[in-house]
Design a protein that fits this description.
This protein has 342 residues and is of the alpha/beta class. Helices cover 33% and strands 15% of the residues. Strands 1, 2, 3, 4, 5, 6, 7, 8, 9 and 10 form a ten-stranded mixed sheet that branches. Bound molecules: iron/sulfur cluster.
Length: 342
């Protein structure tokens, strides 16, 4: 069991375990007087929303977006509640391919006890080079889980000591996830919620996450719309992702961490460097620095290797070169970004 296996809290009113293990005691400076972190700020925002009843109302609003589905950037209007399937091919019921503490995410998410990942099937993007295509693309993969089961999974991750619940490709299951979050919070869930997505998000769906999501973790994939369409089947990807990033930044701001470096709120952008400059790194970094903040945290990822159907899409048929990664990191620095991860 990761991180010493804390027992789950059984009611929202119980003592809240903090990420740095000091309970509700405010973190203080060396002189013992000045608070370094506002403890209330570290509380997941969904707790207040649940208390006011707003979280339940968001479930209904999100469900309406699924009637003729416009939950993601595809806006393909599939009648999901009547059994129709859209581009993502997701049905009405959530399917989870796996869940558990994960130690391969960025350090502020992993901390000492891991990030509590839940991997959903039927990703709304169909990237030809996807490294997880076997678990993320198959609409019949994984296991069907209802609201109570999904809530129980969230609580089990907290019980195992995870620092957060990390929803991986959650967009197409937003209403069901919100319902499960409401149920889990009623049973004592109180760790931050991470929204780990491909960036192809619908603005109206993101608005429903205002005050719900604590940490946004979007991939930002391409600066060129033609590349986004060819490699991920996503029309206007750059326009959609930029609009989504503005909204995410507006909601949660720059990433904040506690004194042990564990994130509790904010935006952390991921960008995978692709061979042949296909990702358009320099342009995306300029946008992030100029229109969000030069303090935005970004992970310029260097692990690209050909997977899935990448061999049919040169230059994706080769690993990314070290020089290409260095050039991408330099582009981020030149754009003025100051918080590069790894
Ligand atoms: S979530 Fe799925 S069904 Fe809904 S708009 Fe996106 S691709 Fe279409």
């Amino acid at each position: 069991m990761a991180g010493g296996g804390k027992e789950p809290a059984t009611s929202a009113g119980e003592r809240r375990p903090s990420a740095d293990g000091d309970g509700n005691k405010p973190a203080t400076g060396d002189d013992g007087r000045k608070p370094l972190i506002d403890v209330d700020e570290r509380k997941p925002s969904y707790l207040a929303l649940r208390s006011s009843g707003e979280l339940a109302s968001r479930v209904e609003k999100a469900r309406r977006l699924m009637e003729e589905c416009v939950l993601c950037g595809h806006a393909c209007r599939a009648r999901r509640l009547e059994g129709e399937r859209g581009v993502c091919r997701a049905g009405e019921t959530v399917r989870v391919s796996s869940y558990g503490p994960h130690f391969g995410e960025e350090r502020p998410l992993v901390g000492r006890r891991g990030s509590g990942t839940i991997f959903f099937t039927s990703c709304n993007l169909r990237c030809v080079f996807c490294q997880n295509w076997d678990i993320s693309h198959d609409p019949e993969g994984g296991q069907e889980v209802g609201t109570e089961k999904l809530a129980a999974i969230m609580l089990s991750l907290q019980a195992r000591g995870c620092h957060n619940v990390n929803l991986v490709t959650p967009t197409h299951y937003l209403p069901q996830i919100l319902a499960a979050l409401d149920a889990a919070a009623a049973q004592g869930l109180e760790i931050p919620l991470v929204y780990n997505c491909g960036g192809y998000e619908a603005l109206q769906a993101l608005k429903l996450l205002d005050g719900v999501v604590d940490i946004y973790l979007p991939d930002v994939k391409y600066a060129d719309p033609e590349v986004g369409l060819r490699l991920s089947g996503a029309r206007d990807y750059p326009k959609v992702v930029k609009r989504a990033l503005r909204e995410m930044h507006r909601q949660v701001g720059v990433l904040k961490t506690d004194r042990e470096g564990v994130a509790y709120r904010g935006l952390l952008v991921r960008h995978l460097v692709l061979p042949g400059g296909l990702a358009g790194t320099a342009e995306l970094c300029r946008f992030i620095a100029e229109e969000l903040s030069p303090e935005t945290h970004i992970n310029i990822m260097d692990q690209y290797r050909p997977c899935h159907r990448a061999h049919d899409y040169p230059p994706l048929d080769r690993p990314v070169r070290r020089a290409e990664v260095e050039e991408a990191k330099e582009a981020a620095r030149l754009a003025g970004l100051r918080n590069l991860h790894r």
